[in-house]
Amino acid sequence: MKHLPNSLYGFAISLFVFWCGTWCVHLLAICYGKFKLHKKSSKCYNESPLPAVSILKPLMGIDPNLEHNLESFFTMDYPVYELLFCIEDSVDPAVSTVESLMTKYPQVDATLYMGGSKVGVNPKINNMQPGYSAAKHELIMISDSGIKMKNDTLLDMVNNMTEKYALVHQMPFTCDREGFAATFEKVFFGTVQSRIYLSADLLGINCHTGMSCLLRKSVIDELGGLRAFGCYLAEDFFIAKAIRDKGWKMRISNQPAMQNSGICDISSFQERLIRWAKLRVAMVPTTILLEPLSECMVLGALASWSAAILFNWDPLVFYLVHVLTWFLSDWILLSIVQNGSLSFHKFEFVVGWLLREISGPYLFLHALWNPAIRWRRRTYKLQWGGIAYELPSVNINLSTKRLLLS
Ligand SMILES: CCCCCCCC/C=C\CCCCCCCC(=O)N[C@@H](CO)[C@H](O)/C=C/CCCCCCCCCCCCC
Ligand SMILES: O=c1ccn([C@@H]2O[C@H](COP(=O)(O)OP(=O)(O)O[C@H]3OC[C@@H](O)[C@H](O)[C@H]3O)[C@@H](O)[C@H]2O)c(=O)[nH]1
Predict the structure, then answer these.
(1) 236 included as an active-site residue
(2) Using a 6 Å cutoff on CB, does residue 185 contact ligand 2?
């Protein structure tokens, strides 16, 4: 140890400190998850009138669960809300799904907006713009197509929107679905994603993923409306940033967002993770270093090396204990986020967890390698900072277009 150059010794110390910091993140996430998640929403309607909410549902294409998921918005236990369905393309098969639900529940205030409005590059913002302009209420909820609501999800979000808050978002999670791909998604959202999301929320770091969020319309209007974020693909991150820059607070709600898309396969999920990684790299370049470094397998190897240098500990034993403890800590966190029995066997968790941990660094490298971003039927590139521009797409005929929509 005496003969080591100072710089290498310093590097080993920094790695070891980072490793300790990562365990603090594990601990924070578990404690905060236990404290915050799944608390019952108890506000009684008679106490004070609940504010009305305009719910924006940007839709594109259908999947086997879409009707069931959308129906959960018609049957919520909440006094006053309106549903604003936004569909860009009038030949989209989602149109008939929405229309049949509107016929089935005539008592629910629901409107369908078609055609979108090109206010920027972000197709989700363009799609939602007509609905946003028509929204009647001060509280706006943006909810992606794959989200399923519980009876009291909206109540829970509204309860979290207290005086100083202008953004309440749901931590992404998944419904119980059949198959290994569903297990893999649940393992991802319930472990690595929950760990970062919970600790970021606790420490006041912007980690907003906009699949289900509640906003104050007056604040968004003051910032220039949704259209002001149309130049970004990651509108969620920039909406949260702008809200905080104005002095407002944001936080997660007690219930996680229950994603329940009927399309569930490993390769399209990994494509989605790669797309998200590309967004993060462009918006927060420090993640280029932080993300691979905070992966279990990578960090374990580096920390074993530094422990061997600093304390002369056996690197193999250190590595195995590190991986095993990480695994157990992830299991505990997943159980907290799930809040009930898991829909898969423990062995499936082991396989899903290993696949996630091994594929994580590879997917990240993949994202760095090819910066073009494919989102549904369009392709984009990002400038450093996050401003997006669309790449010209190849001409596709109508039948291919239908295929992409379905
Ligand atoms: C000492 C330990 C340090 C731990 C460092 C952790 C490094 C960060 C690793 C992974 C980041 C994962 C971010 C998870 C959520 C992202 C999902 C997502 O990409 N959503 C996008 C699409 O909807 C969205 O536009 C992005 C939103 C947020 C991006 C935030 C990036 C910065 C994250 C840094 C968080 C550090 C938290 C550390 C907690 C102590
Ligand atoms: O071209 C599009 C693409 C997507 N959308 C809508 O946008 C929502 C999210 O789309 P996807 O499910 O494909 O994408 P993700 O789940 O990855 O989105 C997530 O990451 C990117 C962020 O900008 C989003 O806010 C976040 O929800 C859906 O409701 C979808 O219907 C459009 O309206 N038009």
Answers:
(1) yes
(2) no
- Name which residue sits closest to atom 28 of ligand 2, judged by CA: 144
215: phi then psi, degrees, rounded to nearest 5: -130, 155
pLDDT, the chain, mean: 94
Kindly report the backbone phi and psi dihedral angles of residue 44, in degrees, each rounded to the nearest multiple of 5, phi listed first. -95, 135
ipTM for the predicted complex: 0.96
Task: Record the tokens describing residue 198, joined without a space.
Answer: 């919970």
Task: Please answer whether residues 78 and 51 qualify as being in contact, where contact means their C-beta atoms are separated by less than 8 angstroms.
Answer: no
Residue nearest to atom 23 of ligand 2 (CA): 234
Nearest CA to ligand 1 atom 31: 280
- Helix then strand then coil, in percent of the chain rounded to 5, is 50, 15, 35
Q: How far apart are CA 290 and CA 271, in angstroms?
A: 21
Residue 401 has pLDDT above 50, yes or no: no
Q: Is 211 in the pocket of ligand 2 (CB under 6 A)?
A: yes
pLDDT band at 397 (very low <50, low <70, confident <90, very high): very low
Cα(116)–Cα(133) distance, integer angstroms: 11
Can you point out the beta strands (E) in 126-228?
A: 139-143, 147-148, 165-169, 172-174, 212-216
- C-alpha of residue 284 to centroid of ligand 1, in Å: 9
Name the one residue in this structure whose structure tokens are 């008679």: 46
Residue of 259, 276, 329 to mutate, ligand 1, most atoms within 8 A of C-beta = 276
What pTM was computed for the model? 0.94
Q: Mean pLDDT, to the nearest integer, of 239-260?
A: 98
Give me the domains of the chain, ranges plus CATH numbers. 6-31+281-388 (no CATH), 37-170+211-264 (3.90.550.10)
Strand-by-strand arrangement of the 147-148 sheet: 147-148, 257-259, 172-174
Selecting among 92, 152, 201, 236, the annotated active-site residue is 236
With a cut of 70, say whether residue 122 has pLDDT above it: yes
